[in-house]
C-alpha cells in the first residue's frame, strides 16, 4: 500500500507551479521559474527552516493544550502560524515537483522523499482540530 502511495506521489508532474488560492499571501506564492532555472541551495535551506519552525510550533502548541479558555488567544496565534507554515510547505513541495528544477536526479529523488512525508496523512491542522479538543471530550 505504501509503495503505491509513493509511486503515485513521486510521479513527475507536467503542471506548472500551483495557482494560489484566494487567501494566499504574497510571500506564500511559489516563484515562477524560467526555463532552465534551478532550485537554489538557499531555497532548500529556507524550506528546511520552515519545516523545523512548524515542528517547534507544533510542540509548543501541544504543550499548551491544557490552558484555560481565557488564555487561548496566545495558543490560537501559534496555531494560525503553524497551519500557515504547513500550507506553505505543501505548496512549495508541490511547485518544485519537476526534475528539471534540480541539478541531479539524486536531488530530485530527495525532494520526492520529502514530498511523500509532507503529503501523507497525520499532519495536524490546528484550526480544525485544536489541542484542547481531546481534553474537553474526556
TrEMBL record:
Residues 1-38 are annotated as: Disordered. This is Rhodanese domain-containing protein. Residues 115-135 form the Rhodanese domain. It comes from Lojkania enalia.
